[in-house]
């Protein structure tokens, strides 16, 4: 009777734990293990009151007493400057407006212009044809409906040509001291997403999210601080993360350097 051949034992493959993701920047490697990420794989961490307070505290330390970057001496000048700042740097606007306001000192002076007359004065701010129509239209409304005074109410400002919530919030906050909302410009848009204060991508929704997580007495100052931070450190491309005081509170997926786990969903 022959011997039955014994079946060969099956060898189990050795399994290895997944490698921790690393972020290589400037010759250094920061290991970001999945266990360190509260958001899981590339997720989003909703803002907590403690983290929001820590962000605000660091912004206060970095930019104490910061004010609006647009040069102005009246609510009308601020309104015009904000209209001109769309798709344009504040530096450029501040180069244009002093000459502009010497030439046309009051809303009445703007109200009698044609767009063709105003366009050469604001050409360097870009989109000058639409901006000329908006400035003149707003001047006419201020003169004809508000006795030459810029109104201090949101619903009235929003009826003016070229004025949306961003512009209205700038005027109400920076001149009248009314915290009716949060100014959402390109810097606030970008950095609020990076800091995981919002997941939204449109300004209206971002503003609503920020109004929910920020104390109202910080709405005005927060925007000024973030705008300054965006110009100095947190650029859209190649932000200076290694120099950023907020770095340990930021898990943005597009950081250039990190000591904390990054979240893919938190980026521009």
Question: If you had to describe this structure to a student in words, what would you say it looks like?
Answer:
- It is a single chain.
- The protein folds into 2 domains: 41-66 and 182-249, Orthogonal Bundle (Endonuclease Iii, domain 2), CATH 1.10.1670; 75-174, Hypothetical protein, domain 2 (Endonuclease III, domain 1).
- The protein contains 11 helices and 2 strands, in the order E-E-H-H-H-H-H-H-H-H-H-H-H.
- It has helices spanning 49-62, 75-84, 90-103, 107-111, 115-122, 128-145, 154-157, 165-174, 186-194, 203-213, 219-232; strands spanning 21-25, 28-32.
- The protein is elongated, with a radius of gyration of 26 Å.
- The model is unreliable at 1-6 and 11-41 (pLDDT under 50).
Can you lay out the helices and strands and say which pair or pack?
Blueprint: E1 21-25, E2 28-32, H1 49-62, H2 75-84, H3 90-103, H4 107-111, H5 115-122, H6 128-145, H7 154-157, H8 165-174, H9 186-194, H10 203-213, H11 219-232
Antiparallel strand pairs: 1-2
Helix pairs in contact: 1-11, 2-3, 2-8, 5-6, 9-11
> CATH superfamily name of the largest domain?
Hypothetical protein, domain 2
Low-confidence stretches: 1-6, 11-41
The count of β-strands is: 2
Order of helices and strands: EEHHHHHHHHHHH
């Amino acid at each position: 009777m022959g011997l039955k051949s014994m079946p060969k034992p099956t060898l189990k493959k050795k399994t290895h734990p997944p490698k921790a993701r690393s972020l290589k920047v400037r010759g250094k490697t920061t290991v970001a293990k999945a266990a360190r990420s509260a958001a899981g794989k590339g997720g989003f961490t909703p803002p907590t009151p403690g983290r929001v307070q820590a962000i605000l505290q660091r912004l206060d330390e970095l930019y104490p007493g910061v004010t609006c970057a647009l040069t102005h001496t009246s609510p009308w000048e601020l309104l015009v400057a904000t209209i001109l700042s769309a798709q344009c740097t504040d530096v450029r606007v501040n180069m244009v407006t002093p000459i502009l306001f010497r030439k046309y000192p009051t809303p009445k002076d703007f109200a009698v212009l044609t767009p063709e007359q105003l366009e050469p004065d604001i050409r360097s701010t870009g989109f000058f044809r639409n901006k000329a129509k908006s400035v003149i239209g707003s001047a006419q409304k201020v003169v004809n409906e508000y006795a030459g005074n810029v109104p201090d109410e949101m619903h009235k400002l929003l009826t003016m040509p070229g004025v949306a919530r961003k512009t209205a919030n700038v005027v109400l906050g920076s001149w009248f001291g009314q915290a009716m909302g949060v100014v959402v410009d390109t810097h606030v848009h970008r950095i609020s997403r990076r800091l995981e204060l919002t997941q939204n991508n449109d300004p209206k929704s971002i503003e609503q999210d920020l109004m929910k997580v920020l104390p109202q007495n910080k709405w005005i100052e927060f925007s000024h601080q973030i705008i300054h931070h965006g110009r100095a450190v947190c650029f859209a491309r190649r932000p200076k993360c290694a120099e950023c005081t907020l770095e340990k509170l930021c898990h943005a997926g597009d950081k250039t350097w990190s000591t904390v786990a990054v979240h893919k969903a938190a980026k521009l």
